């Protein structure tokens, strides 16, 4: 499966229109203290929300396939909550699972969260060849 998105500047400084081939449209913006209008999530929040969404869906799909009593998933994701590390970055993820799950099921779902596709993308090696059009 191929995934793609497009970003395009708008008439509002730092507000970006985001779209995909399916016709979905969303936006990004910078906070006011960075010169933006704070009218949409900033790019970091969009990346973090992708991890949270993927984690949530992956856990729901796995539990449904196993017919486990998972009733709700909440994922909190933070970038460098304790300050920027000396090297790299740290994304701290906290998952709250609701439902009559036993401890073995809960631990298995934690393992499954580590294997969600966006988690693997962010932890893996990424190359970004870039051209000018």
How would you explain this protein's 3D organization?
With 133 residues, this protein is an alpha+beta fold. Helix content is 32%, strand content 23%. The protein is built from three helices and five strands; from the N terminus they run βββαββαα. The strands form two sheets. It has a three-stranded antiparallel beta sheet, with no helix packed on it. Strands 4-5 form a two-stranded antiparallel ribbon. Helix 1 crosses helix 2 (103-114). The chain is globular, with a radius of gyration of 18 Å. The model has no long low-confidence stretch (mean pLDDT 97).
H and E order? EEEHEEHH
Helix content: 25-40%
Largest sheet: 3 strands, antiparallel
Got a strand count? 5
Q: Within the largest sheet, what's the order of strands? A: 1-2-3
User: Which blocks of ≥5 consecutive residues have pLDDT under 50?
Assistant: none
What is the strand and helix layout of this fold?
Layout: E1 6-9, E2 16-19, E3 25-28, H1 43-66, E4 70-79, E5 91-99, H2 103-114, H3 117-123
Antiparallel strand pairs: 1-2, 2-3, 4-5
Highlighted features:
single chain; 133 residues; alpha+beta; 3-stranded antiparallel β-sheet; two-stranded antiparallel sheet; 3 helices; 5 strands; globular
Could you give a quick summary of the protein structure above?
This protein has 133 residues and is of the alpha+beta class.
